[in-house]
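Write out this protein's structure.
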Amino acid sequence: MNKFITTLCLLGIVFLIDSCEYNNEEELYPKKESSSNCDTTSITYASGIETIILDNCALSGCHDGNSGLATINDYSSVKNYVDDGLLEQRVLEEKSMPPSGPLSTCNQQKIRSWLMDGAPQN
């Protein structure tokens, strides 16, 4: 009986040690993107939207002019998609573009603000 209790205690200690793991706060509770840090004032194509387009749309294999898909790499090409509603539909509503996954919340807010202001170029 004494051997059984000793074995049981050892198994309990092994179980406790094995079940301990270190997690840091960032892994356990990832910070959500704060919309309060997203400046959506005075957004124009040249001062905010162009970077989003070039970083997410005008990429090799996508809308760069070499892939067979529509070229979306300057104001006039983007404005065509604004005017027919496709930019808002695909990027903000369906979130099917870019195909790698939805844009960040801040980039979506910038595009929405830009569209609401009439999609100005400069």
